[in-house]
Design a protein that fits this description.
This protein has 290 residues and is α+β, with helices and mostly antiparallel strands. It has a single domain, classed as 3-Layer(aba) Sandwich (Glutaredoxin). The protein contains 9 helices and 13 strands. The strands form 5 sheets. The chain has a 5-stranded mixed beta sheet. A two-stranded antiparallel sheet has the order 1-7. The chain has a two-stranded antiparallel sheet with strand order 2-3. The chain is elongated. The termini are far apart.
Amino acid sequence: MRKVSARNRCAKLLALFIVGLGVFAQPAMAQTEVNLARDVSLDQKLDEQVPLNLPFKDEAGKSVRIGDYLGKKPVLLMMPFYRCKGSCALELEGLLTGLNKVDYTTGKEFDVVIVSIHPKETPELAAAKKREMMKWYKKSASGASGWHLLTGSWDSITRLTQTVGFKFVYNEQKDQIAHPAGLLVLTPQGKVSRYFYGVMYKPQDVRLAIVEASENKIGSIVDKVILYCSPFDMHKGKYTLSFVRLLQVAGCGTVLLLGLMITILGVQNRRVPLYKKDLERLKSQTPEQA
């Protein structure tokens, strides 16, 4: 998984879009015309429950269910397909780049579940993709167990994607897929918590989303303050600073600081008379009494 410059990313995405227009905007596919703007999108369905019993196969060929990876930790969910050399490769690269800069480790604070949306892909392809990705994940020695690359039937794929608002089009005759790019964050219970769009994900935003999805079970007090001051902007797909909340936090901090100073001064004022009495007593004592 080689590094790609911003210019190359834009060129690849543009080329992918043009190819998509040529391949999918034809009435020949299922005798219906495909509208990319309508049929290919990532629609937010916040708090939607992911079906926990959906069957898939992991990269080792073992039969698993989505619920096997939920219950204890937040989950980052991505839905590319493994043979894709366009936006899928870019979003997987963007995920690795972002997570390498997040000071949490997969398998400990959160898990990553990647589900292929191509019904013909196999566990062998998933295993090869995982080996390739783990070469670039800096914490692979301790975090490889937290990565789960799945393949499944058309029924399982469509049920999952429809639940979370992931709209894509599969041309079975040409074996082509037009799909959106993005990253979803699930709570430990399997409910959709956050959406990130595109192929690049800011480490700070991903970290805050993990903390938020964990229901504050992980993260420092600083993370919680940042979350309060930076609510998530669903339209921009990122956390943005709220000056109103920042002023509220600053005001509360000022009040607490003043209260602490008043308490300290009050204690000191109560102790001063005692010191004066002790000095007067010592002065009144004779050398023999001292």
